[in-house]
């Protein structure tokens, strides 16, 4: 298995874990805040992961920086979480947007040659190659899946989902 295939497998596994950790919950449960004054919620994390995928795979790698950040209002990064309210339409939009950004990323990645991980995308703060972007995305998913574990357990006691 190539390094690119390994990274894509991990990304697919992390995305599947998001689906498991949010399964069978209603809008109120998905929007429930962790611990006041935190605005962290499962729904907020799904919105954030949609923004994350869109930013790194679309805006950075596909070079569309002019596109608006998803779920970020007037440059306020907290709006990803503040806007995660217990409304079925908000839940539907968040999951549809996240799934679409994942599908768009996968479609682009399908055409990426194995050796492309070394392609330099420009000098940046630790992000200089396609490999660096993948590592950034994977570490973000891993971190937020830990948050999701705790949030899910506080909602219905389920662990290890």
> CATH homologous superfamily name?
dinb family like domain
Q: What proportion of the residues form beta strands (DSSP E)? A: under 5%
How many strand segments? 0
List the total number of helices.
Answer: 6
CATH domain topology:
Four Helix Bundle (Hemerythrin (Met), subunit A)
The overall average pLDDT, rounded, is 93
> In the residues, how many domains can be counted?
1
Shape: globular
| CATH architecture grouping | Up-down Bundle
CATH class: Mainly Alpha
Helix-strand category: mainly alpha
Cα distance spanning the termini = 27 Å
* SSE run: HHHHHH
Q: If you compute it from the alpha carbons, what radius of gyration comes out, rounded to the nearest whole angstrom? A: 16 Å
How much helix, percentage-wise, in residues? Answer: 55-70%
Contiguous runs where pLDDT drops below 50 for at least 5 residues: none
Q: Biggest β-sheet: count, sense, barrel?
A: none
Task: Describe this protein with a few key phrases.
6 helices; mainly alpha; Four Helix Bundle (Hemerythrin (Met), subunit A); about 0% strand; about 160 residues; about 60% helix; single chain
Which secondary structure elements does this structure contain, and how are they paired or packed?
Blueprint: H1 3-22, H2 27-31, H3 42-61, H4 79-82, H5 88-110, H6 130-156
Helix pairs in contact: 1-6, 3-5, 3-6
Characterise this structure:
There is one protein chain. By secondary structure, the chain is mainly α. The chain has one domain: dinb family like domain (Four Helix Bundle (Hemerythrin (Met), subunit A)). Helices cover 61% and strands 0% of the residues. The protein contains six helices and no strands. It has helices at 3-22, 27-31, 42-61, 79-82, 88-110, 130-156. Helix 1 (3-22) packs parallel to helix 6 (130-156), helix 3 runs parallel beside helix 5 and helix 3 packs antiparallel against helix 6. The radius of gyration is 16 Å and the shape is globular. The model has no long low-confidence stretch (mean pLDDT 93).
């Amino acid at each position: 298995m190539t390094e690119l295939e390994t990274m894509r497998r991990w990304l697919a596994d992390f995305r599947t874990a998001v689906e498991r950790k949010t399964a069978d919950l209603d809008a109120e449960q998905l929007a429930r805040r962790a611990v006041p004054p935190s605005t962290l919620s499962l729904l907020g994390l799904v919105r954030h992961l949609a923004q994350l995928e869109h930013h790194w795979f679309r805006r950075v790698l596909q070079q569309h920086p002019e596109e608006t950040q998803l779920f970020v209002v007037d440059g306020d990064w907290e709006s990803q979480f503040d806007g995660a309210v217990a409304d079925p339409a908000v839940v539907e939009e968040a999951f549809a947007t996240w799934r679409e950004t994942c599908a768009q990323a996968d479609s682009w990645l399908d055409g990426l040659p194995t050796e492309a991980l070394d392609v330099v995308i420009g000098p940046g703060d630790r992000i200089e190659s396609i490999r660096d972007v993948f590592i950034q995305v994977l570490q973000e998913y891993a971190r937020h899946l830990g948050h999701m574990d705790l949030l899910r357990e506080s909602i219905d006691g389920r662990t290890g989902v």
